[in-house]
Amino acid sequence: MSPTVRFSKNAANVFFHILTQCNLKCRHCYINPEQHGRQTLSLDTIRSWLETLARRAPMADLIFLGGEPTLHPELAEAIHAARRLGYRSITIDTNGYLFHDILDRITPEAVNFISFSLDGASPATNDPIRGKGSFKACTAGIRKAIQKGFPTSLIYTVSSLNLHELSSVPPLLGQLKINRFFIQVIGLRGQSATCAERPVENLQVTRDQWQSHVLPVARQVADQGIRVTYPKVFLEPDEPFECAGRVADNYFIFPNGRVYRCPLCEDFPLHSLAFENDRLIDMDPINEADLFKLDIPEGCVMNKLIQPHNITYLPDGSPANKIACCLLKEELV
Ligand code: SF4
Ligand code: SF4
Hints:
By secondary structure, the chain is α/β, with parallel strands linked by helices. The chain has a single domain (about 5-295, about 325-330), classed as Aldolase class I (TIM Barrel, Alpha-Beta Barrel). The protein has twelve helices and 15 strands. Strands 1-15-8-7-6-5-4-3-2-10-11-12-13 form a 13-stranded mixed beta sheet. Helix 4 (about 100-105) links the parallel strand 4 (about 90-95) and strand 5. The termini are close together.
């Protein structure tokens, strides 16, 4: 059985992009500097925004992201500031290059997870997606983190470019001694949305591929004793649809001050909140919050707007499945 992890009104998540700069150029990168900014936030600004969010959403789970967050020379100080502010958990999402000797500047107790991204179980599959040498660098970073006692997780973004290698991931996880595994699904955002060479629609996996490839691998990983999290994607007819924008408390913060409640809105100026002069303000309508209120038979409104080809219709014109909120996850323990 795979219990669906429901949104909880008592849990908040803060996804804090402290810069958008990165040493890699992954093919499916969702960072969009036009919409997210190009600046690196100062430590004072990071502290101030963390304080505001800690007041608004006490005990939130905090994830530091970029770009590549370890390119920020003061990430260690930002982590210590977040700890003092009482965030429930702190995670660093990294491509594994671990700049500025970050593992020597924090202790394993300072963070709950260091989360590494790999998109293949071998350099042959991973490197064409994430960049030459990135498999070697990332696995070396994982080994170093584990050797120093840091809890680690791995994120694998499934697309038609690496679906074939997903079944080789369970032995790799065991070999590396990873603690948690996250399967992501490729989205139509940022860089991935503008890849002219191979449109992202061709990179997305179908429902049949998802069910025949992804779910068995998730079960295999769970059988190895590793906790697995993956997106729900398709709802069964009897499953209720819920929009996280209405029922959950998520904040996606970007260096230009935009704060979104829905990741699918991040390519558009639809943010419902923004930091202006270090104050968090509500944006005027129309913004993402107005879209969250709409009820449509297809489920997620933003999915229908930006990737309608994901939806299959029956002869009577009704959708074959509702598309779940992209934030709805299932977990196997
Ligand atoms: S996906 Fe992450 S590692 Fe890859 S280019 Fe984007 S920010 Fe960098
Ligand atoms: S992905 Fe869809 S369902 Fe989820 S918060 Fe955004 S609009 Fe709502």
